[in-house]
Structure formats: structure tokens, C-alpha cells
Design brief:
The complex is a heterodimer. By secondary structure, chain A is an alpha/beta fold. Chain A contains twelve helices and 23 strands. Chain A folds into two domains: 67 residues, no CATH class; 337 residues, no CATH class. In chain B, helix 5 runs parallel beside helix 6. Chain B starts with a strand and ends with a helix. Classes of the chains: A alpha/beta, B alpha/beta.
């Protein structure tokens, strides 16, 4: 029995969400609630040009008309969100403009260090440039100089608005239009910060670009906006990570990510999402309503989404590809893990428009505890997409008998020369498998982690090397306490 | 090393083991033979700690500890190994990843640091070669699509890597061809030593030509009905179990 209680103690230790601490830092906040004044306040805070304020206001006015049109088709249950009961702008107080990384508030540096993200360049993981977004603003971007020399623009989107307005104006909302959906519209009105990336023609960006999102303030929504443009023949690999303190209240996160790949360009976008998932009984946690979409605008372009979704109380997320360019390729690799009372409704859309466009979807859903995990995907082949191909594989793994897994694949094929393939499996970790592992000396947690990592290996392998190991550990940790 | 006393075990209300007593000293190899369904695997599973068995009487002590009070993984880390009669398939998990996790679980219990990748490869390579296991087998998911004989070899591979103090081999010879039988036996014999003990369950006395036991027990109807030396196995092969069935 001794061994069992040791394990239990170890599990309890890890179960406390590792990133659940709060940074005590003074912040600048807009008054609570949402109205035109708040939208103007945010825009003014960021010193935005008139066109952008207009764009926001247009979005806001449209959002008001959607009042009761919050999407309800997903397999998610949550109390109605009171959008007036939140803060839409919070920023850590700091001196005006930073001239160098050394001026970043040491408390913020310390916070990110605790999260495993070093901001001081001498400590930085080599080959990874980081943009750190704290509540509503970007607090630091590393390796700026080196990237500048290459012609890469990697900066907070608020800075891009000032320095590269023509690029922002040209592409903002061009993939996810203002009126796309309830949450995207809301984001368009109140987005505060996020990352902006431009990779010039023909450049293979030699560094991983990475943004690290952190929600710290209480009752604050995070509405970040990311825009990545890969010009002709360029390549970039981008990674996004997220955590939030452990709180009893639910917090809203409604981000928009837009990717644009021009001729022969390639974007690899990886996410390790580890927002606070709520406690064992479903108290607290982030509501994650995110719109991510990439446009393969040019011929032979490619966009590849990889997501490892382990956090959030609710995940509503469908990173998609619009395959406009002939021969363009969209790929979606997903691991979604739900435990305790978490709910995830996630998947992708592959819209085939150009000729010989190809897409591949590999989704691995793991449900444990009393959680619910839904894959929802759409493959649409339009009339002119001769020779389009799609391959979809959706595998679900159940741990225990109180959880649920659903697969909802939609296929709409309007071109007789196109081929789509769909495979789906559901399996369970059996008692026999667990016992076999235990007999070899592994603890239950190790056994589950080993089996689950094996189950989603194909997806984890697509992550950049530096993060694959972390993701593997995270997979194990997020399932702690799911057996026995 | 292991002391089983008057062990009674029921499965779903039906008594399967009806008072097993067996004592195995360090350095010894014992063999159990007996007809199908007499409770040999039940005994192995109870030693390893599988759930679903009700122990109504008796005790098992291992190296001075109350084995039945320990969790299955703790038993394994304490040095108890079971080569399964029916090894389980674990899709997605490569044999090498599985082996590495198992080795590290043991090392952690011994206060050692994790094995490094090079050392692991070298170790596994040496053992697979000795057991006639093809290199690419350890890249495949554990036991998935392995032939009957390959599964048994994989069990022995795990045993030689984990170097248990006490190993139960439940029909590890079933499904092996004649060459494999020899290779696998060599693997077991190489581990034999004054600090280890084995319990070998088999239907074929032929195995005992290779793994020569110190004691042979006959089990029928949930009891050990006869014990003797090596010659008992030969006698069983000649005359079958009829005489012992009557006794049970
Ligand atoms: N979970 C179970 N439910 C019901 N009966 C069981 C269960 N497990 C074992 N038994 C029964 O217990 C008896 C002993 O089974 P066990 O597997 O121990 O036999 P064995 O001696 O190993 O046979 P074999 O030589 O065929 O491997 C059998 O009658 C079997 O059907
Ligand atoms: Mg048996």
C-alpha cells in the first residue's frame, strides 16, 4: 500500500497546475464593460491611425447586432457569458518605450522565467526568438536586431500598425473578415496585442519565432490578434504557447490568427495550449474561443497547423486552411486532451479552391475523467478544384468510462475528380495494457503517459524539436490522476 | 526468496487455488506442470498482483516482505517479473520506448539516473543479438503483429534487461520453434545465479532439458499434488496426468 500512497502524493503535487501563480504587478486598466468608449480607449492607448479605429468601430457595431448569435452548434455547455462583466484592457505599468531588453520590468522577466521562457537574450534558447504578451500588451520581443538584418519583421502588432501600416492594412481581416463569427467580430473590435510577422521574399527564416501569451489580471479577457505573412518563396516556423493563473472565475480568451502564404511560401504554425483548465470539479479555467485560419493564396504554398491542446475549461477552435493557389497544401495535426470536466470542440476546415490542392488531417483526441472531446471537421472541395485530395484520420482514446468522445466530419465534394478519404478509430486503454506496464515497474501515471504519447506520436513529431520534449511531458502531466 | 503458504484464491466466487504452498530459495529453479485450467496462470497473476483475484487464505512473502500488500508496480520494482502467457499488444508504443521506460522505472527505484540514449542502444543491441531478435523488431509497436514466438522472445528480452530477482515464466516455451527454444533457454540460463530464482510453468518436459530445474511440481485442481526432481517431468511425459487427477 505504501507505493500507492507515494504515487498519490506525487500526483497531488503535480496536479496543482504548475503555471497557476499570479504576478503582483501594477497595471493600467480600462474601466469594466464594453461600449464604444472602451473601443476608442483601446485605440487611443495604442495611438492608432483613424482607419483602424474605424475598422474597430465597424466591428463593434456589427457585434452588437449579433447579441444573441453566439455560436451554439458546438458540443459545449457553459453558462451565458456576461460581456459587460470583464475588463477589455489591462497592461502592466512600465516606462514609455523600451530601448532594449534590459529595460523590461524585472518582475516580468522573473514571471516568464518561472514559465520557462527566458527573455534576457543571454539566457535565451538559441535559435528561438520570443515575443511575450502579458495580458493586453506585448512586453518584450527578443532577437529583434538579428531578425531586422534579415528583413524579417517580428514585433507586436501594435508596433506594426505604427511602423508598417501598409502591410497591416492590406492583410488585417483579409483571412478572417470582421463579420466572420461572433468571437472574431468581438476580437476585431477590442483586440489589444499579439504578434506580427512578415517574412520577405525567398527567405527561409533561420529562427523559430515564438509568442508566449500570459493572462495575469483577474476578470480580463485576452483578445490577441496575430498576423503572419510569408512572402513568395519564404518559409517560417512559428510557435505559440499560453498559460494563465489558477482562478475560480472563468476567463475569456478570444484570439484571431491570420496566416497568408504567397506563391511557393510555407508557414508552419505550432501551438502548445496550456491555459488553466479549471479544477477537478470544473471550477474556473479559461474559455478559449479562437479563430485561426490560413490562406494559401499563392501557387505551391503550404500551411501546416500543429496543435497540442491540453488546457482551458472550454476549447472552441478550428485552425483552417483556404487552399486558393493551385497545388497548395494544407495540413492539420492535432492532439486534444481533456481531463476532469474539460470540454473541447476542435478540428479544422480545409477549403479546396485551387487545382490539385491537397490536405491532410490527423486528429488525436484523448478524453479522461468526466470530460468531453469532440472532433469537428469540414472538408469542402469546390467545383474548380480538379484533382483535389484529402486524407483525414481521427483517432479517439478513452481513459475510464465517464468521458465522452465524438467525431463529426463533414465532407462536401463538388468536384468529381477529387478524392477524399476518412478513417476513424476509437480505442480505450485496457486494464490488461495497464497491468502489463505496471508489471514492468512503471507507475500508473508513467504507463498512461507512455501509451498516450504513443497514441499521438505522429502529431508530436511535427512539433519543432525544442518543444516536442516539453509537449510529451505536458501530455503526461495533463492526464495525472486519470486512472486508479 | 519466495514463500507461498496455504494460498487460496477465488475468481468470481469460484475457488481456483485451493491451498498452494511453495518455497523457492535464491539460486533455485522450480518447474510447475499441470493440465489446462488447473490454476497455473492464476498463481502467476496473483504473484504479480493482477486485480480481480480474491485471496481468501494464505500468504506470500518475498525477500521478507508481505508481497500481497504491495502494488503491482512496486512488486516489479522490488524484483518480481512475470513473462506473460499472453503478452499484451500496446499499439503506438515502440518496443524500444517501452523498454526504456521500464528500465528507467527500475533505475529510479534504485536511485540511479536515467539511462542515456547511447548506453541504452548498446545494451539493447547486445541482448537482442543474443536472443536472435531482428533489429527492426524493437522499432515496432510492442507485441503488435508479433508472431507467437516473437512475443515470447520479447518477454525474455525484457527479463534479461530488467534482471529480476524472481521471474515467473508462464509457458514461455509455447509457440517457440526448436531453435528459439534453445536461444530463449540460453537467455534464462545466463541469468541463473545464486542471487536469483525462477518459476517455470510449462507443458513440455523438453524445455526442462534446456532449463534444468532443481524441483518439479505437479499441479492439478488448484493444488500441488506431487513434487520431485527432474525425473518427475519425464515420468509425466510418459504417463500423463491420469494418476494425479485421481489424487486431486
Ligand atoms: N477472470 C476469470 N473469470 C472466470 N474464470 C476464470 C478467470 N480467470 C481464470 N479462470 C478460471 O480459472 C481456472 C484456472 O485458469 P488458469 O488460467 O490459471 O489455468 P492454467 O493452469 O494456466 O491453464 P493453461 O495451462 O491452459 O494455461 C480456469 O478454469 C479458468 O477458466
Ligand atoms: Mg496458463
Amino acid at each position: 500500500m505504501a507505493a500507492r500512497s507515494d504515487t498519490a502524493a506525487a500526483v497531488k503535487d503535480i496536479e496543482a497546475y504548475k503555471y497557476g501563480f499570479v504576478t503582483d504587478i501594477e497595471s493600467d486598466r480600462a474601466p469594466k464593460g464594453l461600449n464604444e468608449d472602451i473601443v476608442r480607449f483601446i485605440s487611443a492607448k495604442k495611438n492608432e491611425p483613424a482607419w483602424l479605429l474605424e475598422w474597430r468601430l465597424k466591428a463593434f457595431r456589427y457585434w452588437l447586432t449579433l447579441a444573441d448569435l453566439e455560436p451554439a452548434w458546438a458540443k459545449l455547455h457553459y453558462p451565458k457569458i456576461d460581456y459587460q462583466d470583464a475588463y477589455y484592457y489591462a497592461a502592466p505599468k512600465q516606462k514609455a518605450a523600451l530601448k532594449s531588453m534590459d529595460e523590461v520590468d524585472p518582475q516580468l522577466v522573473e514571471t516568464y522565467k518561472k514559465l520557462g521562457i527566458p527573455l534576457l537574450e543571454q539566457q535565451i534558447m538559441s535559435g528561438v526568438a520570443v515575443d511575450a504578451v502579458f495580458d493586453s500588451v506585448s512586453v518584450a520581443t527578443t532577437y529583434k536586431k538579428k531578425l531586422n538584418e534579415l528583413g524579417v519583421i517580428f514585433c507586436p502588432i501594435s508596433e506594426a500598425v505604427q511602423k508598417h501600416p501598409e502591410l497591416v492594412q492590406k492583410y488585417l481581416g483579409s483571412v478572417v473578415p470582421v463579420a466572420d463569427n461572433f468571437f472574431a467580430t468581438l476580437n476585431s473590435a477590442v483586440f489589444t496585442d499579439g504578434s506580427f510577422v512578415y517574412i520577405p521574399k525567398g527567405l527561409r527564416c533561420p529562427m523559430e519565432l515564438s509568442t508566449y501569451f500570459r493572462i495575469n489580471e483577474k476578470n480580463t479577457g485576452q483578445f490577441e490578434r496575430t498576423l503572419i505573412i510569408a512572402d513568395e518563396g519564404s518559409y517560417v516556423s512559428y510557435l505559440e504557447g499560453c498559460t494563465a493563473p489558477q482562478r475560480d472565475e472563468n476567463q475569456l480568451h478570444a484570439a484571431v490568427v491570420e496566416l497568408v502564404a504567397l506563391d511557393d511560401a510555407e508557414i508552419k504554425y505550432s501551438t502548445v495550449q496550456n491555459w488553466f483548465p479549471g479544477d477537478k470539479d470544473g471550477k474556473g479555467g479559461i474559455y478559449n474561443f479562437v479563430t485561426k485560419r490560413g490562406a494559401c493564396r499563392g501557387k505551391n504554398s503550404k500551411i501546416m497547423w500543429t496543435q497540442v491542446e491540453t488546457g482551458s475549461a472550454i476549447t472552441w477552435k478550428y485552425p483552417s486552411c483556404i487552399l486558393q493557389g493551385d497545388n497548395s497544401v494544407g495540413e492539420f495535426y492535432s492532439v486534444a486532451i481533456t481531463n476532469n470536466r474539460q470540454q473541447a470542440d476542435t478540428g479544422t476546415k480545409m477549403i479546396h479552391i485551387g487545382r490539385n490542392t491537397r490536405s491532410k488531417i490527423i486528429s488525436k483526441g484523448i478524453s479522461a475523467g468526466k470530460s468531453s472531446n469532440t472532433y469537428r471537421g469540414l472538408v469542402r472541395v469546390q467545383g474548380k478544384a480538379d484533382g483535389a485530395r484529402n486524407y483525414t484520420q481521427c483517432d479517439s482514446l478513452l481513459i475510464g468510462s465517464a468521458c465522452a468522445a465524438h467525431t463529426v466530419p463533414y465532407i462536401e465534394n463538388r468536384n468529381p475528380t477529387a478524392q477524399t478519404e476518412h478513417e476513424a478509430t476509437t480505442s480505450k486503454i485496457s486494464e490488461d495494457q495497464l497491468f502489463y506496464c505496471l508489471q514492468r515497474g512503471m507507475t500508473e501515471e508513467e504507463a498512461v503517459s507512455l501509451i498516450v504519447n504513443g497514441f499521438c506520436k505522429e502529431v508530436l513529431q511535427t512539433l519543432p524539436m525544442e518543444f516536442a520534449v516539453e509537449a510529451q511531458k505536458l501530455v503526461g502531466i495533463s492526464l495525472e490522476g486519470s486512472v486508479g | 526468496m519466495i514463500e507461498i503458504k496455504n494460498l487460496h484464491v477465488s475468481v468470481q466466487g469460484k475457488e481456483i487455488l485451493k491451498g498452494i504452498s511453495l518455497s523457492i530459495n535464491a539460486g533455485e529453479v522450480h518447474a510447475i506442470m499441470g493440465p489446462n485450467g488447473t490454476g497455473k496462470s492464476t498463481l502467476s497473476n496473483v504473484i504479480a498482483g493482477r486485480e480481480g483475484y480474491e485471496i481468501t487464505q494464505g500468504s506470500v512473502t518475498f525477500a521478507g516482505q508481505d508481497l500481497l500488500a504491495m502494488e503491482p508496480d512496486a512488486r516489479a520494482r522490488a524484483g518480481v517479473f512475470l513473462a506473460f502467457q499472453y503478452p499484451v499488444e500496446i499499439p503506438g508504443v515502440s518496443t524500444s520506448a517501452f523498454l526504456k521506460t521500464a528500465i528507467n522505472a527500475k533505475r529510479r527505484a534504485e536511485g540511479l539516473k536515467e539511462i542515456d540514449a547511447m548506453e541504452f542502444l548498446k545494451l539493447v543491441k547486445a541482448k537482442t543479438k543474443a536472443l536472435g531478435i531482428a533489429d527492426d523488431m524493437i522499432k515496432r509497436p510492442l507485441n503488435v503483429g508479433f508472431s507467437g514466438g516473437e512475443k515470447k522472445r520479447a518477454e525474455v528480452l525484457q527479463m534479461t534487461l530488467l534482471e529480476p530477482k524472481f521471474a515467473v515464466l508462464d509457458e514461455t516455451d509455447s509457440g517457440l520453434d526448436i531453435d528459439a527454444l534453445k536461444v530463449v533457454s540460453d537467455g534464462v540460463n545466463a541469468l541463473r545465479g545464486p542471487e536469483r530464482a525462477f518459476l517455470v510453468i510449462t507443458h513440455y518436459q523438453r524445455l526442462l532439458n534446456y532449463i534444468v530445474p532443481d524441483h518439479v511440481h505437479v499441479m492439478t485442481g488448484g493444488r500441488i499434488v506431487a513434487s520431485g526432481g527432474r525425473e518427475l517431468a519425464l515420468e509425466l511425459e510418459a504417463n500423463g496426468y491420469a494418476k494425479y487427477m485421481a489424487a486431486a
